[in-house]
Design a protein that fits this description.
Peroxisomal Thiolase, Chain A, domain 1, 2 domains, globular, 414 residues, nine-stranded mixed β-sheet, two-stranded antiparallel sheet, alpha+beta, single chain
Length: 414
């Protein structure tokens, strides 16, 4: 059994990533996802085309970023889609990490897997059932499927893990918040390794109606971050899961590493529930603190994975804050918004975008911002329009913003 040396736990403040798992509109595993990133594939499609049974209640012309060809693990078929995605991504990440669970201390494996809002598909399905049959009985597991923290419980049960668990819910920044919670578990000596990330399944009638009412969905059914014609985003689904380990633990078992966590930071900007005040400085302060904790200058960053949702105000806010935080160096950093390819995966976005950054660092390329044909002069960073480009990446930064004002950023080192 692998167990870290107790006398060294206090020095285990460096965290590495040893495994990744992805379920997304542009690939149901990490290999498919990587090919799509390099080719600039866009996962936009008709809901009916993607899954006629699940989306039969939608209009035939409803366009979004659903999964295509996803088959849930047999043990997860009774679960809400967001949990299925997280379970499938966890299975891939564990396999990728080569972490043999039969040889590790299950009380030292943490879990930090979340969702932005829980089982909305389950909620709508059983809400309709109760309207037709108000006295119908609903199994207890149905209620459990609604909880945003329930994927953590299912992962622990399936793999018989008994370590610490922490669940963060931060709207669109949930995935990155969950990863940071997992990192902190290891930094503070609570765990030797951690399963961290998020899944989301927000393609339901209730959720789409809500997003439309907020005015954030694209009427042109196209997500084009930083483009002059941008008019909002489209919803995507999926999950991103990372296997985090202390550097000492990973070295002890001779694990391959995607990269090292150089720094991470939370921030908050409570100016408005669903938008950010362009005159505020929340993200600016967040990024400045990230640089300070990482001990670097902005020009040392080789790739910046942007939040970039394709809303007018959101893209302007993010661009302005980056320029304030990084100064003239901001214009020299290759950047992109991969939501242009995956859609806005809501709670899963932050986790999938960290994985994107790790893949880009491993393979030496900058993913493109798809559909960026007419750059907005106000959003004047190097956003890598339309096509990926080769580049050696030693330091990558990923940013996540969430409705409600949550902010997070992470700095990854090769």
């Amino acid at each position: 059994m692998i167990r870290a040396n107790k006398s060294k736990r206090e020095s285990m403040n460096k965290v590495v990533i040893t495994g990744i798992g992805v379920v997304s509109p542009i690939g149901n595993n990490a290999d498919e996802f990587t090919r799509s990133l390099k080719q600039g594939i866009v996962g936009r499609r008709s809901l009916h085309e993607a899954n006629p049974e699940r989306f039969k209640e939608f209009d035939a012309d409803e366009i979004a970023f659903p999964l295509s060809g996803f088959k849930p693990p047999p043990y997860a078929k009774i679960l809400d889609p967001n949990i299925q995605y997280s379970m499938a991504a966890t299975e891939e990440a564990l396999s990728d990490s080569r972490l043999d669970l039969s040889w590790v201390d299950h009380e030292r494996i943490g879990i930090a897997v979340s969702s932005s809002k829980g089982g909305m598909y389950t909620f709508e399905h059983y809400n309709e059932r109760m309207q037709n049959r108000p006295s119908a009985l609903v199994a207890a597991r149905v209620y459990a499927n609604l909880l945003p923290n329930i994927a953590t419980q299912w992962i622990a049960r399936h793999w018989e893990l008994r370590g610490p668990a922490k669940v963060a819910v931060a709207a669109c920044a949930t995935g990155l918040f969950a990863i940071i919670e997992g990192i902190r578990m290891i930094e503070q000596g609570e765990a030797d390794c951690c399963i961290a990330g998020a899944g989301d399944a927000s393609l339901t009638r209730l959720m789409l109606a809500g997003y439309r009412q907020m005015g954030v969905l694209s009427k042109n059914k196209m997500i084009r971050p930083y483009d002059l014609r941008r008019d909002g985003f489209l919803i995507g689904e999926g999950a991103g899961i990372l296997i985090l380990e202390s550097e000492v633990y990973a070295k002890a078992r001779k694990a391959n590493c995607y990269g090292k966590v150089r720094a991470h930071v939370y921030g908050f900007e409570p100016s408005h529930p669903i938008s950010f005040d362009e005159r505020s400085n929340g993200l600016e302060r967040c990024l400045q603190e990230l640089l300070k904790r990482g001990g670097i200058k902005p020009r040392e960053i080789d790739y910046l994975n942007l939040h970039g949702t394709g809303t007018q105000s959101g893209d302007r806010y993010e661009t302005a804050q980056i320029k304030k935080a990084f100064g003239q160096d901001a214009y020299q950093i290759p950047a992109s918004s991969t939501k242009s390819m995956t859609g806005h995966m809501v709670g899963a976005s932050g986790a999938v975008e960290v994985i994107t950054s790790l893949i880009a660092m491993r393979d030496g390329f900058i993913p493109p911002t798809a559909n960026l044909e007419i750059p907005d002069p106000v959003c004047d960073l190097d956003c890598t329009p339309l096509r990926s480009k080769d580049k050696k990446i030693n330091l990558a930064c990923s940013i996540s913003l969430g409705f409600g004002g949550q902010l997070a950023a992470i700095l990854l080192e090769k």
